[in-house]
Amino acid sequence: MDREDDSSEMLKLFDKEERGYFARLRDMFVGLTRSRDSIEYKEALRELQRQWAPLLGVAIPIVIAVVMCSITIGGGEPPERGVEVTFVEPDVGPPLDPIEPPPPPETIETPDDLVSDVIASVPSPPLGDPVPNTPPTAQPPVMPTRSPVIFKGIPSRGAGGGGLGGGVRLEGDMVGMFIDLSKDARGNLRPEFQTVAEKSSYVNKDRLLFKDVHYMIRNGLSREAFRPYNVVPQKVFLSHLVLPYVKSSIGPTTYKVEKSVKKGAPWVAVYKGQLQPEKDGLYRLAGIYDDVLVVRVNGKEVLEFTWESRFNGVGQPSPIGTGWTQKDAAVAGKHRMKGFQGVPLTYGDWFPLKAGQSVPVEILIGDNGGDGGEGGLTGGILLVERQGETYAKTPDGVPLLPPFATTRLTFTERERLAQIADPTNAKTSGHYAFSAKDIPVMNTCGKARPSMTEGDVTVDVGDL
Predict the structure, then answer these.
(1) Exposure b/e, 223-256, CB count within 10 A at least 16 = b
(2) Are strands 346-347 and 242-247 parallel, antiparallel or unpaired?
(3) How far apart are CA 185 and CA 6, in angstroms?
(4) pLDDT at 297 over 60
(5) Looking at CB atoms within 10 Å, which of 31, 145, 304, 413 has the fewest?
(6) In angstroms, rounded to a whole number, what is the distance separating the alpha carbons of residues 150 and 198?
(7) What is the dihedral of CA 155, 161, 165, 169, to 10 degrees?
(8) pLDDT for 156 beyond 70
(9) Closest CA to 223 of 275, 265, 181, 270
């Protein structure tokens, strides 16, 4: 199978990620008939393992119980033994004289003052010199240990769902795919990047990045939209997008292709999932990403940001060429993020959501790869606002919106966000103005989930 076929198969699996149970069974049996080198066959093997897991979880304990019941303790009943008993007639002597009973004991009455006399006769110990109060001896701190025991029921992947995603999937996560824009579907260097990959200005690389992103959006982020590019056959899972500045190489590293993607190569990551919040209402997103951020809800673009047009005002379109513009003058340019060089958040369009209805969501982020072939920096943040909701504000009046999260965050994920948003944190110095409290869950199947301590739930001890 060549790289183009491999990428095409990966795209089919990516598009079918939200399949139902019976559809997955059907695809599993079909995949087992494919070539052992195909992605469909490998995906079918993984699905077969997932199907067998619950059956083995029930069968193994039953087999153990049957074996234990069949074992008899001590190897059966002991044999009966007979004991011969001989009765011996006692030797009866002459009769004994009757024994007189002893006289009754003399009753002695204790005087009332006897106890007082005994107590008075016992000398009291000397008091001695007073001992001054001294502080207790300092004990060495107890080092916390991480328990290796993991209980099921509560998210337990640590902080792996943030950043650009991780390898452990939880219910509600978005599924991500990675595209190396410097290569075509066969893995060959694209002609337009033959010189850009070695030496080029940010402007030229941005133009090529914007052109590719425009093509993908125009084709609906579908399989056709990614066909001309080098799609990596590796998926990751994203719960929220909060990524302080890091090297651009985090993209290839997250998808485990850092050895095959050249430094300085532009890339795009696309995440797909479903939205179904706990509350009905009008929602909008606010975000930044260096270099490109695009969000689509129910097939419609609701937010677009580029680093090149980061200071655009109301009604000024971005250079991607989709025609989308920021529309709310009341917030445009006013929510500045110190952690991202003071760049203001771009606020998206309002869109309705209902708790009982599910709509698709797609997030695209992209990086131009930096300048000079060594790579640059990348990072961004995506927040959510519900119309009519009351939010805390910074001293200068900036609303503290919560991160956009598609599933319940783990303990470690929430702790990490609290550290980033903490204004007393010396590393961030409060440069990331958002709220790490009361983060809404945007994918809950129309009902609120239990808290971390309610109901039949448990916790990953390693996270605590």
Answers:
(1) bebbebbbbbbebbbbbbbbbeeebbbbbbbbbe
(2) unpaired
(3) 9
(4) yes
(5) 145
(6) 47
(7) 10
(8) no
(9) 270
* CA dihedral over 439, 353, 310, 331, signed as positive or negative: negative
Segments of 261-414 assigned E as strands: 267-275, 281-290, 292-297, 300-306, 336-337, 343-344, 346-347, 351-353, 359-367, 377-386
Amino acid at 68: M
- Amino acid 262 reads K
Per the CB < 8 A criterion, the answer to whether 305 and 285 are in contact is: no
Nearest-angstrom CA–CA distance, 421 and 411: 15
Going by C-beta distance under 8 Å and a sequence separation of 6 or more, which residues neighbour residue 287? 241, 293, 295, 303, 305, 345, 346, 348, 380, 381, 382, 383, 404
pTM over 0.70: no
**DSSP class of 338:** G
Q: Cα(58)–Cα(54) distance, rounded to whole angstroms?
A: 7
CA atoms lying within 13 Å on the CB side of residue 52:
8
Token pair, residue 32, equals: 């087992």
Bridging pattern class, strands 267-275 and 292-297: unpaired
Contacts of residue 180, defined as CB under 8 A and 6 or more positions apart, other chains included, come to 229, 230, 232, 252, 257, 260, 261, 265, 267
- Residue 332, both tokens: 């445009």
| Backbone phi and psi for residue 132, each to the nearest 5 degrees, phi listed first | -65, 150
What pLDDT score does 94 carry?
58
Tokens of 419: 């550290």
d(CA 277, CA 285): 14
The closest alpha carbon to 318, from 150, 422, 206, belongs to 206
CB atoms under 10 Å from CB of 120, counted, come to 9
Q: Which residues, at least 6 apart from 272, have a Cβ–Cβ distance to it below 8 Å?
A: 14, 17, 174, 175, 221, 360, 361, 362
pLDDT category at 201 given cuts 50, 70, 90 is low
Q: What is d(CA 122, CA 126) in angstroms, rounded to the nearest whole number?
A: 13
- Summarize pLDDT for 378-390 with one digit per residue, the tens: 999 999 999 999 9
Q: Assess contact for 227 and 171: CB atoms under 8 A.
A: no
d(CA 208, CA 291) in angstroms, rounded, equals 12
If you write DSSP's letter for every residue of 39-97 in order, what string do you get?
A: HHHHHHHHHHHHHHHHHHHHHHHHHHHHHHHHPPGGGSPPPP-------------SPPP
Angle at 313 between CA 308 and CA 315, to 5 degrees: 105
In this predicted model, which residue has the larger pLDDT, 105 or 53?
53
Task: Write out the DSSP string of 155-166.
Answer: --STTTTSTT-B
Name residue, tokens 């504000």: 393
